[in-house]
Amino acid sequence: MPRIAYLGPEGTFTEAALLKMSGGRMLPGGPGADAVTPVPCDSTTGALAAVRDGDADYACVPIENSIEGSVLPTLDGLAGGTPLQIFAELTLDVSFTIAVRDGTAADDVTTVAAFPVAAAQVRHWLAEQLPSAQVIPANSNAAAAADVAEGRADAGVSTALATKRYGLAALASDIVDEPNARTRFVLVGVPAPPPGRTGADRTSVVLRLDNVPGALVSALTELAVRDIDLTRIESRPTRTGLGTYIFFLDCVGHIDDDAVAEALKALHRRCSDMRFLGSWPTGAAAGAAPPGLDEASSWLERLREGLR
Amino acid sequence: MPRIAYLGPEGTFTEAALLKMSGGRMLPGGPGADAVTPVPCDSTTGALAAVRDGDADYACVPIENSIEGSVLPTLDGLAGGTPLQIFAELTLDVSFTIAVRDGTAADDVTTVAAFPVAAAQVRHWLAEQLPSAQVIPANSNAAAAADVAEGRADAGVSTALATKRYGLAALASDIVDEPNARTRFVLVGVPAPPPGRTGADRTSVVLRLDNVPGALVSALTELAVRDIDLTRIESRPTRTGLGTYIFFLDCVGHIDDDAVAEALKALHRRCSDMRFLGSWPTGAAAGAAPPGLDEASSWLERLREGLR
Amino acid sequence: MPRIAYLGPEGTFTEAALLKMSGGRMLPGGPGADAVTPVPCDSTTGALAAVRDGDADYACVPIENSIEGSVLPTLDGLAGGTPLQIFAELTLDVSFTIAVRDGTAADDVTTVAAFPVAAAQVRHWLAEQLPSAQVIPANSNAAAAADVAEGRADAGVSTALATKRYGLAALASDIVDEPNARTRFVLVGVPAPPPGRTGADRTSVVLRLDNVPGALVSALTELAVRDIDLTRIESRPTRTGLGTYIFFLDCVGHIDDDAVAEALKALHRRCSDMRFLGSWPTGAAAGAAPPGLDEASSWLERLREGLR
Amino acid sequence: MPRIAYLGPEGTFTEAALLKMSGGRMLPGGPGADAVTPVPCDSTTGALAAVRDGDADYACVPIENSIEGSVLPTLDGLAGGTPLQIFAELTLDVSFTIAVRDGTAADDVTTVAAFPVAAAQVRHWLAEQLPSAQVIPANSNAAAAADVAEGRADAGVSTALATKRYGLAALASDIVDEPNARTRFVLVGVPAPPPGRTGADRTSVVLRLDNVPGALVSALTELAVRDIDLTRIESRPTRTGLGTYIFFLDCVGHIDDDAVAEALKALHRRCSDMRFLGSWPTGAAAGAAPPGLDEASSWLERLREGLR
Question: Would you call C269 and B226 a contact, using CB atoms and an 8 Å cutoff?
Fold first, then answer.
């Protein structure tokens, strides 16, 4: 029964993603929701550490939000330390529940507990609906509900799951300032053979490039020349000074796609340091699929045999 | 007397950057430290809004930290809304002062107020030196000192400036987990002619690229082919869904460098949407200077005149 | 009255091109057919030498044939020696007249004089129509007619113009093995300001590239990145050993097109040796016109003025 | 006993190359000089036709001269018709023997027979040493000797081999205007498995590119991005009109070099029409060898197995 670390306590979006992933049988090996052991951790960084330390088999962590961008602790946790690998992903619509103790009306609310990331995503709603309430920082969306349950705040910006877990009522539901707010979660484990190619896959790497003009464009050209669709690039400081970076690249395709395999080899050859973060299914197409090289390979084989 | 908005209250790193900028006479028009009016704001976003609203002439805001990476509210504030422009930059070493009320010893400390970004940068120090103290979120590095002065916390992760302003003592100074921690600040105003070319300049743009394979590499090639040194690339979500991004590019050189001017025109032509964030002096060289085209321009002129 | 050198004697295709050029008033300065002095030379190389030596103002020389490819003496004559420049071009359909003395029938022909280039272009016709005739080399298409007029051959593969000049009859007209046979002629003079931009122009250069991997693709990228249509590339040995080459590049556009001017400067900067062969009108479009940069230049100028 | 077609008659440079190739045991299957049957043909085109028609097993043909450039009939004969393949190459220094009948002195020479290509390469020598002699065209270098032997000319620009074969004397030897004159010959047969990779190999292809801006640079980028050294590019008209070309590309490496195989597949995928002309040993290195991908392939295999 695989143990899966996540940002707890119970009731966070991450737990919701975890439950949906396992219920959807996206886990390597295929266990269902009833066959996993959630391991709550106090941070995303802690969830990754649990995998590295052997305290969990996988970690379910957010990697990207359509409003806030990359989740930096996840990127930094994947880029450094002993190698980890991504095996699955899931995207959730993000919307919040305003949790209150039963009987609390909007006019009664003078303090609102909120995880800062969440507070940023409902700022306009709060300004309109609870203009006089003071925002108090909470440690997670679930903790915001706990703060309400335990009387430290009148309302909490939380999740439907946590509202229910803590026996609270919903002052408002499906709250979010921006439409299209979505968070992508990934399932991370220790390196293992990637899940099989499905035809709708994503491959991700981290590059540490030599600090010379043109190094990045040379690396990206390795993808572009092979018609591989780069779907995301994110830079992060190397922590050794301003002006040096590592790059996270996501592309459409699988290590078992010939074009992707060629590109990975080329990047490996070109980069002083490169880390493979995995190839895994995305369910739906996330961009233009890499070209198939079967016909070209057959053609080449015929040349080698002296045929035309 | 130019009014300069910044993340207040008094005593933040940003105020220190602002004072150093004006003291170094880096302001357009050249006023010195004694000739500016600092305008404290409650957030970086608010400081940019003050410029847009005419409540300040400039905003001094952090844009990048060597450990944490980009300062996202600054990037988002520059990418959207009415156009702003960067006129100067300054990089500060980042280190913290642990502020206490006079007479407080390490053993007395049970609570430590800290701005979360600062807390992250002194995590190891706190774990070693104040292992049993609880960390309480503060709204800024200066607010952490205020929390101490007003008795809400025993110690605060703050700045030397704020420690002094609030009449506090330093339990420890120059504290930071990572060596090389530096923050780059920029001075932002409404669009105006850029400061003159100095030979050590930076130019910055924001691109919104069509979502087609190869769009990014095509854009970067416009820089690479002209031997322009791309010193930074940062992607941010467009907020219209996962998988679409805008890109912040910094390069070495000035809009009045011929090669940079060519590249800007090419990017403008190629991109559905592109925003110029400015050309400004960096003081020291931040990479490989763009090639001079004077000789090539003279050569071309001779061709046009029929000379060889 | 400009003197124009050409491959003589009278009656060659080159003279026909020259007359059509001057009649079409394509000459710089605009003289018509009645205002030029043709200067017959014994070779293309000799015609270019006449310009260099001051014995002619221009040379009209073939540069490319749709069947045979480049005219190598013309390319070599333009690449080396003191600089020359191209000012105009004209393309002629190529077809031959089989010239005989009045009264000669096909059955009477046992010898056929032919310039080797011409013989190659009517090989099939000769094999079918005059299968038993022996081919005798002539020094030009006009000389083939002279050989007939003077009794050294029974028939000659010649031009309509020469047939008429030498008072001969046409055994057959409009003869050519391959349809679409065309020859492009250029008007060459000493360097001078290029003819004005017409919107349908060609620009030509010669590059001597450093012998390093990627040098050629780097040079061509300077055109491609600027959406300049490369219409022709021809390599020629440097004559210093096998494996080193110079390259002739033709592109659509004029030195006064901004994009072409940028590309020329970039190539000049990148190449150890580069020779500009001219910008001149082609009459009709020869490919995709270079993009206009006026809008981008205005945009850049507004940035410099602080406008958006 | 393989039959090898060549430009005859006996005594041409091509026959000398053929004898040296077979003596050097460069033939596929390894027969020596004593085990081949030379088949003289009246042209390079005819030699290639003999292979296609089954009248010869191979053709030995010149493909490139360091002074004159490509040998166009060879290129055109390889680009069109049923596919042929190159299996070996040999480079010869080119120099001429001035053949005379025994007893003829320089002052006695009033006519000199010469193959036009040869005449062009000794023009300066003739002008200085035999200024009053008239040059008479011959059909090959060997035919020039035959013309002397049979009394049709006083002297002939010929080869050492032909001078000896026709029982003539050498008025002068090792004559050539340009130092470094060399000709490269190739051995052409019907398609068969290429000779094995030696580490010093050449691969050659013919591309017919779509007539769109950037098509050539895209194709060349497939080589450049893989650090494959393009040693030669030659364009030839498609014979369907001015302005459309096919391209002959030579690169360093063998179809069994991983990087070359990748590039061939990429070109095949990108080009509407591409012809493989072979991979064969060059003896000495002709440029920068393609990078080995063994380490990168092992790395990739480890990723697939879940190892790091």
Answer: no
